[in-house]
Amino acid sequence: MPETIEARPASTVVLLRDTANGLETLLLKRNKALVFAGGAWVFPGGSVDPEDFEAGDGSIAEASRIAAAREAHEESGLSPRLEDMVLLSHWTTPVGEPRRFSTWIYAAPLAEDVEVVIDGGEIHDSRWLSVRDAAAEHESGNLVMLPPTYFTLLGLSRYASVAQMVAEERSSPVPEVFPVFANDGKQVMVMFRGDAGYESTDGSLPGARHRAVLSHNCWQYQYLDVDPVYPPLLKLSVL
Description:
With 239 residues, the chain is an alpha+beta fold. It has five helices and twelve strands.
């Protein structure tokens, strides 16, 4: 059996601000030459370093928060306040991938309007977009995203303001997401707990559907006939 690569602690933060067009967030485009997520549009983030653990007194909860803020400053020049950061979800890269991360995803309002400064190395571009427009651009094939980024945007799109997001997310359970990669012979997909093919990674098995299917470079979420013990990842009125 091949060795299972341990998931490295990582974190990211969705930087948010209120505008007349609704909630806006900053997306960064990763260098196409990067091995992991090259060319994808992402939120600021990266690995949790030993210095972050030290600053957080060894607590992964504190270290992940510190790392997300540090990476945001390094990649965009923007610095969210630690006390304002709200934990949205926790995703772990599927087993079998050559690079695996255990990623805490935060959201935070910006304390002030600061000019975005990217490094031109790891990050090659940046855009402020409303969360709804960002999701729509992915759906139209204009913005390449990994599933956690897209699903996070969809989840945030139901909020009218940063204050509403903070109030609800601070009191909401934090989803622990453990996807598995699979295909049904035709399409690439990631399956989530509750899908009929989750344990076998066989996407062709009949039954419950809890998955995201990649179609025309866009992830499409499916949640059908799933046991209620596995709630949907998206808190939307229409799925």
